[in-house]
Amino acid sequence: MSGDGSEAGSARGTAELIALLTEQCELYEQLAALSASQHALITGDKPERLLGVLGDRQRLLDRVEALAARMRPYQTCWAEMRLTVPSAEAKEVDRLLSRANKLLAGILELDKADAQLLAARKSATAQEMSVVKAGRTAGAAYVAAAYGSAEKRDWTDR
After folding, report:
1. Residue 22 parent element (H or E)
2. Cα separation of 153 and 158, whole Å?
3. Sign of dihedral through CA atoms 36, 38, 39, 43?
4. pLDDT, averaged across the chain
């Protein structure tokens, strides 16, 4: 952002903000596509490919974080800037912000559904493991009761 307060500086700042918001929307679209892939892998029970998607998402999130740092100065002074920029540019910024928010909401909604599904699977797996453990404990007790004295016996003594 130019920070010189002039109309030309404001126009450059608005153009840069629009470029940053456009880039943000593009990154969010890529994240949304990866989020959909992640959701399909989780609901399709294909965890082996999930780590690759999660890695791709992390790389995009790193880019989103760097972009957010570049956008921060505009966020702090957007209310002032909006008063000085032409209406068409202000509407474009509003449109891009709305689009970014909508994309982000969709990503968060899918992530929430995935988290709930994974939590349910974790609980079910823990319950299944508890049943298996109880079965093994019962089996071990049965073996000990039925054959406990057999371990001390030398079968050649018969």
Report:
1. helix 7-43
2. 9
3. positive
4. 82
